[in-house]
Amino acid sequence: MFYIVGLGLCDEKDITVRGLEAVKGSSRVYLEAYTSILMVQKERLEAFYGKELIIADRDMVETQSDDILKDADKEDVSLLVVGDPYGATTHTDIVLRARSLNIPTRVIHNASIMNAVGACGLQLYNFGQTVSLVFFTETWKPDSFYDRIKENADLGMHTLVLLDIKVKEQSEENLARGRKIYEPPRYMSIPQAVSQLIEIEEKRQSGTLKADSTLAIALSRVGGGPEERIVAGTLEELLAQPPEVYGEPLHSLVIVGKRLHHLEVEYAESFAVNRETWRDVASRVYGCALD
Question: What is the 3-class SS of the chain, one letter each residue?
C-alpha cells in the first residue's frame, strides 16, 4: 500500500492516529520537503514516529517518483506531506502514477491552511479561488494572480494568497551550467507580498487592490500556538509594519471581499493594526452595517 499522510500545520504531534499507524507500519517513509515546511526539524519527527525519514525533494517527487513507489505493491510505503495531501497538485500526480502502476493507495487527511485560515475570523464559505504569489525578479513579474483576485472581488469573495517559498532552488547561472549548487531557502514575507500586490495594482489600475481601502489579513504559523500571528488592516497599513510583527514563516495573506459580514469584522477587529480604521473601511468602503 502507498500512503500519502498529511502531517497538519505545526509539529510532530499533529499527525492523526490513523496516519501514525500507517507510518509505523511502513518499510520506507519519505518526507516531502518543498511544497511547505513544518515548524520542527526532521529529527523531532523521527523521534516521535520511531522511523527514519527519507527527504523527498522536488527532483525526487516530480521526476523520480518510481523510486518512492518501488515495491509499494508488496509492502507499505508512506509519503509524509505538510498540511493535507491534496493541498498541492504534485501529490495528485503521484497518486495517479501509483494507480497507473496498479499500486493500492490510501490518502490520510489532516488540517491545512485551506481550512485553518478560518482562524482569522473570516467564514470559509465566503472564500473564492486561492492564488499563489511568486517572488518577482527584475525580468519576471507574472500577474495572472490579479485576474483571479479580481474575479473573487467582483463576487464579493475573500481570496487566500499563498506566498512563495524557495527550497533547494538553483540560480539561473548554476541551472544553465548544470551545477547542483542550491540557493539558501527563502520565504516570502508579508511586506514583500503586499508590495508586489500594490505594484501590480499600479500597473492594472482596476481598483481591486487599492492600498488605502482594501482590507487584508496576514497570517503566519497558523495552528502553532504561541507562534501564531494574525494581523489585520488595509494593505497600506500592513506594508508599513516591521517584518517582525508577522512572526516566522510560513506566511499567508487574505484579501477581504466585499461580501463582508459584521461578525467577520468584529472577530478580525481584535487583530487590527488600528481598530478605528478597520471598522471605518469595513463600513464606508465595504458597506458592512456595524453598530
Answer: CEEEEECECCCHHHCCHHHHHHHHCCCEEEEECCCCCCCCCHHHHHHHHCCCCEEECHHHHHHCHHHHHCCCCCCCEEEEECECHHHCHHHHHHHHHHHHCCCCEEEECCCCHHHHHHHHCCCHHHECCCEEECCCCCCCCCCHHHHHHHHHHHCCCEEEEEECEECCCCCHHHHHCCCCCCCCCEECCHHHHHHHHHHHHHHHCCCCCCCCCCEEEEEECCCCHHHCEEEEEEHHHHHHCCHHHHCCCCEEEEECCCCCCHHHHHHHHCCECCHHHHHHHHHHCCCCCCC
Locus of grid cell 499500486: 103
Q: Which three cell numbers stand for residue 36?
A: 511547505
| pLDDT score for 180 | 73
How far is Cα 11 from Cα 29, in angstroms, rounded to an integer? Answer: 17
The per-residue pLDDT for 39 is: 76
pLDDT at 170 > cutoff 70: no
Question: Is residue 250 exposed (0-12), middle (13-18) or buried (19+ Cβ within 10 Å)?
Answer: buried
Average pLDDT over residues 53-74: 87
Burial class (CB in 10 A: 0-12, 13-18, 19+), 129: middle
pLDDT of 112 over the 80 cut = yes
Phi-psi region of 121 (alpha: psi -120 to 50; beta: other; left: phi over 0): left
Q: Buried b / exposed e across 49-82, counting CB within 10 Å, b at 16+?
A: bebebeebeeebbeeebeebbeebeeebbbbbbb
d(CA 189, CA 199): 15
pLDDT for 168 beyond 70: no
Among candidate residues 261, 148, 231, 244, the one with its CA nearest the CA of residue 197: 148
The reported pLDDT for the residue numbered 171 is 66
